[in-house]
Write a structure and sequence with these properties.
The complex is a heterodimer of chains A (about 160) and B (about 650). With about 160 residues, chain A is mainly alpha-helical. Chain A contains 6 helices and no strands. Chain B has 22 helices and 10 strands. In chain B, helix 1 packs antiparallel against helix 3 and helix 10 runs antiparallel to helix 11. The C terminus of chain B is likely disordered. Helix content of chain B is about 65%, strand content about 10%. The chains are: A mainly alpha (about 160), B alpha+beta (about 650). The interface between A and B is large, with 56 and 66 residues.
């Protein structure tokens, strides 16, 4: 029974062990290059996972991509060249930080534009509140208030 | 049998909710007291029946009744009891039942503690709340019924996703839902006020405790989820800007804004229509969150097994409630004339700035989350928007918010002098600048992240402390400090918590160390100041998994620090491996060890991280929640809650 348990477990462990994210055998000798590779990896999406970057992913495909990034860097590519190389192969989907090309400027500008718009609206509101005839007690009575006052005085 | 009773109770609750939606609404319109009074017992009965129904489902999970389809799909007889219980809400159908349970819980709570509310407002609030219930009862009964039986029950179940079998995650959904759904109360108040056509200081005071409660739960829920990700997913990430995380973060940002704008309504009778709009949007974003999690529209690490058809129904519910409320808002908002007058430099203006920054930052998260869908549908581009985008686009708003916060929180109401206020904060400013300078000088690489985080953290925390200190007056400080209203304490504690969290996130990100290597048995290696050695690797089995456990001895200059046991588990039923990191928690740092595969040449892959100030992230969240609780327990709310005597006057300005 115990032997069977161990056998079953060995099969299970072999068939479905998670490879941890970055493996020691992937790490480059040159610490500067490795650092660059890690940085780039954090901006690349693991294509078979749900919203994970390849630096953190356990999938085989992520490992392939990590190795590819390192290969390009060792071959002397700059960061941009390496990224372009990968985007050419895998498409824009692989980039976790979208470019500013095409309609994407909208995505990047959305926050600042909204901020400017909101600031304008807020300033208009604040101006209105601060010049609305000074303190409320300085303003004369409204018509209804006058009528009510008259009512009270007449009683 | 119990399952069928639960099913029946759910249908009854559905019927009661329909009655509760229609009758009090008509009653309030026609001023018929009898019809309005239906709301209260209906709300309580609805809650009791829903609670019974939820209890019945929990019972099916606890007793592993595999004739219930949902139990078969999500449970297993060998699963520990805690996870049998949490399995009830660890799936789509059960979690929707929890959702609607909380809707009715809040409705019942409002019917019990809403004694001070005018009868028409109360009837309308409970009616709107019940209408939300109707939508979700219907959704559960017609598309996601948890009580369906199987013709041929299997011998055992298919087990819960092992990643979810964890104490942190067992309690994460209930808190999150209490927060999400708690915002339905603010929504109901907003819609009721729009129908009523009246928003005054009293409204601001009534809506605040509900929003505060929801916000506290949301804070705890998000913190639990992020803590879970930190220790469970195996690389110590705590926030991924994942669509599902964003879905919980957006209501948090908006409810934080709502909390602050409701103060202005309560104390100064301004910002009324904006506050109403925020209340509608905050709950609207909760619904969007529910939609995102369940529709499969966006891919995410957390999503439930999802189903586009159900997504469409949730989309329709969302469109109905948010759209309907916004239409009502457009029609009625003009009627809400602001009363308070204040100058450009005043507490009111500072709170406007707070709302502006929180709302715009929420908008950024929203656009980033939905952009992949927009880009694909409108521009035919398949692209991703991930953490790097949010990390660039979001923090500037938080930096601005953090810089403004201490100034805003000590500015007087109505009219203030900017220079004078800054002068009051001179010690806080000096302290935080000095700390940031020191860190800038000390750290090896010239990254701004650490110093800026320290600056903001110290500025906010010391600003909150100075606020309290100056409130206590000149003489007999300590006694007066203790007598300050709890709301004042709550405000300072919550703000300080925010400062702690900002500092911790910046510090952890800037100063983390990582080590990846093949560790051979009994061969020591250094990570930072620590000496580590893998002394043993044991194979074993837990209740429903197999494990490979490493034993790592950690010393520092010969002194024992800890023995860590990182694990790799395999859950045979769910066919899924997980990593269980071993973490040595200390006040100023976490030591985080993960064990990986056995290598061909002997030894095991090991990753070690030193994560400075990791605990502070959640410590800060806890402080925020504690601050909220203190504020919630303030006399103002306790008195306002039960007493019928209190008239609908604004709270005295402090």
């Amino acid at each position: 029974m115990i032997r069977m348990f161990k056998a079953v477990m060995a099969v299970l462990l072999l068939s479905m062990t998670p490879a941890l994210a970055v493996q020691p055998d992937e790490v480059l000798e040159d610490p500067v290059l490795e650092e660059r590779a890690r940085d780039l990896s954090k901006g690349l999406r693991c294509l078979v996972c749900r919203n994970e970057n390849i630096d953190e992913s356990n999938a085989d495909l992520a490992r392939d991509l990590r190795l590819l990034v390192r290969e390009r860097l060792v071959a002397g590519d700059s960061n941009d060249e390496a990224m372009d190389f990968i985007v050419d192969r895998y498409g824009e989907y692989v980039l976790l930080k979208p470019t500013t090309r095409g309609a994407n400027w909208l995505l990047w500008a959305a926050g600042p534009m909204m901020l400017v718009l909101a600031l304008a609206v807020a300033l208009m509101y604040l101006r209105k509140r601060s010049v609305a005839g000074g303190a409320p007690e300085d303003r004369g009575l409204s018509e209804t208030e006058q009528a009510r006052l008259k009512e009270i005085l007449d009683e | 049998m119990i399952t069928e009773l639960g099913h029946f109770a759910l249908i009854l609750a559905f019927m009661i909710a329909i009655v509760q939606t229609v009758v009090p609404l008509i009653g309030a319109h026609k001023r018929w007291p009898g019809w309005m009074a239906v709301a209260e017992p209906a709300a309580q009965a609805q809650f009791l029946f829903t609670a019974f129904s939820f209890g019945a489902l929990t019972w099916a999970f606890v007793t592993s009744d595999f004739s219930v389809r949902l139990v078969t799909l999500n449970s297993h007889s060998a699963k520990p009891m805690l996870y049998k219980i949490s399995g009830t809400w660890g799936n789509h159908e059960g979690s929707m039942l929890l959702w609607v349970l909380i809707v009715s819980l809040f409705g019942a709570a409002a019917s019990i503690w809403g004694g001070g509310l005018p009868p028409t407002l109360k009837a309308r609030v409970l009616s709107v709340q019940a209408s939300i219930g109707v939508a979700f009862f219907g959704f559960i009964l017609f598309t996601s019924n948890p009580f369906l039986r199987l013709g041929n029950p299997p011998f055992d179940g298919q087990d819960l996703n092992p990643l979810l079998q964890d104490p942190g995650l067992a309690f994460h959904p209930p808190f999150l839902y209490l927060g999400y759904v708690g915002l339905s109360m603010a929504f109901s108040f907003a819609v009721a006020a729009l129908i009523e056509g009246r928003v005054d200081a009293a409204w601001g005071r009534w809506v605040r405790p509900w929003t505060l409660a929801a916000w506290i739960f949301l804070t705890i829920g998000i913190a639990l989820g992020s803590w879970w990700a930190y220790y469970e997913l195996g690389w110590g990430g705590f926030w991924f800007w994942d669509p599902v995380e964003n879905a919980s973060f957006m209501p948090w940002l908006l409810s934080a804004a709502l909390l602050h704008s409701a103060i202005v309504v309560e104390k100064r009778e301004s910002l009324k229509s904006w506050t109403i709009l925020l209340a509608i949007l905050a709950f609207g974003f909760s619904l969007i969150g529910t939609f995102i999690v369940r529709s499969g529209l966006l891919t995410s690490v957390h999503a439930f097994a999802n189903d586009p058809e159900r997504g469409v129904v949730i989309l329709a519910i969302m469109a109905f409630f948010t759209g309907g409320a916004l239409a009502l808002f457009a029609q009625r908002a003009q009627a809400m004339e602001a009363k308070g007058v204040f100058s450009m430099v005043s507490r009111e203006s500072a709170l406007v700035a707070n709302n502006l920054l929180l709302a715009v930052s929420c908008f950024v998260v929203f656009v980033g989350t939905l952009w992949p869908v927009v880009a694909e549908m409108a521009f035919d581009r398949k692209l991703s928007v991930g953490a790097p985008f949010f990390n660039a686009a979001f923090p500037p708003f938080m930096v601005a918010l953090g810089l403004l916060l201490p100034v805003g929180s000590v500015l007087p109401w109505k009219r203030a002098k900017f220079g004078k206020t800054l002068w009051r904060l001179r010690y806080a400013a000096a302290l935080s600048l000095a700390l940031a300078g020191l860190i800038w000088a000390m750290q090896a690489d010239k990254s701004l992240l650490g110093p800026v985080g320290a600056l903001l953290g110290a500025w906010i925390v010391s600003g909150a402390a100075m606020d309290l200190w100056q409130r206590a007056g000149r003489s007999d400080k300590l006694a007066r400090l203790m007598r300050l209203p709890r709301a004042d304490w709550g405000k300072s504690v919550a703000h300080a918590g925010m400062g702690v969290t900002i500092f911790a996130i910046a510090g952890l990100t800037a100063w983390q160390t990582e080590d990846i290597r093949v560790a051979n048995l009994n061969e020591p290696f250094d990570v930072g100041p620590y000496q580590m050695v893998l002394t043993d690797v044991e194979e074993g089995r837990g209740p429903n998994y197999f494990t490979t456990m490493g034993v790592v001895e950690v010393t520092r200059n010969g002194r024992d620090i800890a023995t860590l046991r990182p694990e790799k588990r395999v859950y045979p039923v769910a066919q899924m491996p997980t990593t269980e990191a071993a973490i040595d928690y200390r006040f100023t740092r976490d030591l985080y060890v993960v064990i990986g595969d056995a290598q061909a040449g002997g030894g095991f892959t090991m990753r070690t991280y030193i994560k400075p100030f990791a605990n502070w992230i959640w410590g800060g969240c806890l402080l925020m929640a504690l601050g909220g609780l203190l504020s919630l327990s303030d006399r103002r709310f306790r008195v306002a809650a039960g007493a019928k005597k209190t008239t609908a006057q604004g709270a005295p300005a402090e």
